[in-house]
Amino acid sequence: MAEQNKVQGPASYFPSIEKKYGLPVKHWLDLIEGLKELKHMEMVTHLKNEHGLGHGHANALVAYYRRQQKSGPGP
């Protein structure tokens, strides 16, 4: 039963992102909001080059942001 409550998808990276970079996920999502005119991989590249995020972390944040934009605000 515990596996049903386990976070999956891009959000599963959030604890390690916060631990590694010392900033809350909201910081990164707010930053991505300012990049919304860019394509997915352009956003990822920006996060990697300008803020030092690893590819997996940057991609997870962008994927989560884009999914939220399509589905509306989360809980």
Automatic annotation (TrEMBL):
Pfam families according to UniProt: DUF4287
Superkingdom of this protein's organism: Bacteria
Protein name: DUF4287 domain-containing protein
